[in-house]
Amino acid sequence: MTSMPLRITDTVLRDGHQSLLATRLKLSDMLPVAEKLDAVGFHSLEVWGGATFDTCMRFLDEDPWERLRILKRHIRKTPLQMLLRGQNVLGYRHYADDVVERFVAKARENGIDIFRIFDALNDIRNVATAMRAARQEGAHVQACICYTLGPVHTIQGFVDLAKELEQMGADSLCIKDMAGLLSPYDSFELVSRLKAELRVPVQLHCHFTSGMACMTYLKAVEAGVDAVDTAISTLALQTSQPPTESIVASLRGQPRDTGLDLELLSDVARHFSGVRKRYADFETGIFGVDTNVLTFQIPGGMISNLVSQLREQGAEGRLLEVLAEVPRVREDLGYPPLVTPTSQIVGTQAVLNVVLGERYKLAPREVRAYLKGLYGRPPGPIDEEVRRKVIGDEEVVTCRPADLLEPEMEKARAAVAEWSKSEEDALAYALFPQVAVEFFKKRAGGNGLPRQTVALIAAALSGRVASPA
Q1: What is the DSSP letter of 243?
Q2: Are strands 140-146 and 114-117 parallel, antiparallel or unpaired?
Q3: How far apart are CA 332 and CA 328, in angstroms?
Q4: Who's near 435: CB < 8 A, 6+ residues apart?
Q5: What is the pLDDT of residues 377-394, one digit of tens each?
């Protein structure tokens, strides 16, 4: 086993609150401890990407680009990291190459140092453009394998995929265990194989959902993993990551001692303990360990989404039927890993199958697109009977899906010209047109300032005492 210190990426500013608080953490609750987080000595801080971009505009009246710039001003030493969905960028469909390339360039310019890039189907064609763009911008390219279980998924298959990603120019490799399915001994085997067959560093990202993640991390450490993802304890566990302090304390005085300051980490934890109370309305309601994930392979965040869909249909009591249907739909669709956007595709179809009482009586547009090959190549064979029922004799795409897309940036620039000339705003529109337009209108109404900031200024000018919401 290597004696190099284990490196830690803390996710509290992105995946921690995305997993536990519906991605609602405001910038104003991050900044008071930004300098302390910077002083800890983390390998990196995950601060952007995933669902944070559209949530900023949709719910928080914050400019996601401005959030990144401000964090970069306060966090000067520690590399800033983002999660990028390959050709999906931060959305739920494939975008043209010019959108991917400009997004990566602007994310790099605004402060991202490390791009963690994945594809929900582990289709390497869908990460090639993003990886190339990040490399051209001089950023660190961390390519992912999405870990999952099923008859078409093997340790050897993941190793082969990792080697392909290394050959494509990955600077490091991340095992992305988004559902908490990776067991300790499988972790040891997979990491051992990757360390033996790759030249680049290996990082492990697990969610605590099943309760195995801390043990999985320790076995990965024994196998020589270079870095792991954790979250400050007060935004850890449940469907988030293992607690930073627990991993740091476990390795103190050992060959892989992280060298991180537990007292400083405790200060940060106290801050987020107070902050979390203000976001109680966004708690997932899933507490402790959820072993259902081992049976149904459904991430905790996906379960809350299924409950929401069933509630809208007045069928909340049928959750167990839907949970049983999800693995069947996943098998029909070629055993995709359940991560955005495939988790939404599989979950929505499972709800419809149960509520309508007939499998595939109705299929959403995204399921039709998936079955036509417009999301890429699934890991295993699709059930042809299901495909025929849903799309009939429509032609199935076998090329890289993005090859079918026309450039999109010029149209996006023209569409936002009324509100802005910035490339960042054009990118926001390209990814989330309706959400972006509403955000631009609100911003314009406040002379370019977020609505909450305008309210505070107005209160101050009128002589009233106000405190931030």
Answers
A1: B
A2: parallel
A3: 6
A4: 54, 57, 58
A5: 999 999 999 999 999 999
The DSSP secondary structure of 264-333, one letter per residue, reads HHHHHHHHHHHHHHTTGGG--S--S--THHHHH---HHHHHHHHHHHHHTT-GGGHHHHHHHHHHHHHHT
pLDDT surpasses 60 at 46: yes
Half-sphere exposure of 427 (CA within 13 A, CB side): 21
* DSSP letter string, 142-194: EEEEE---STT--HHHHHHHHHHHHHTT-SEEEEEETTS---HHHHHHHHHHH
SS3 227: strand
Q: Which of 276, 307, 277 is nearest to 290 (CA)?
A: 307
SS3 444: helix
Structure tokens that stand for 237 in this block: 């566990």
| Burial readout 113-125 (b: 16 or more C-beta within 10 A, e: otherwise) | bbbbbbbbbbbbb
Tokens at 439, concatenated: 């955000």
- Positive or negative, the CA dihedral 328, 333, 336, 338 is negative
Neighbours of 73 (CB within 10 A): 11
Cα 180 to Cα 322: distance, rounded to the nearest angstrom: 20
Buried b (16+ CB within 10 A) or exposed e, 388-405: eebbeeeeebeebbbeeb
pLDDT for res 464: 38
Rg, Å, the chain Cα set: 22
Model pLDDT for residues 227-274, shown as the tens digit of each residue: 999 999 999 998 899 999 999 999 999 999 999 999 999 999 999 999
Q: Each residue of 422-467: pLDDT tens digit?
A: 999 999 999 999 999 999 999 988 644 444 544 443 444 444 333 3
What is the distance between the alpha carbons of residues 436 and 454, in angstroms, rounded to a whole number? 19
Q: Which residue has the tokens 């993993």?
A: 225
Site of tokens 């900031």 = 453
Residue 242 tokens, joined: 């293992």
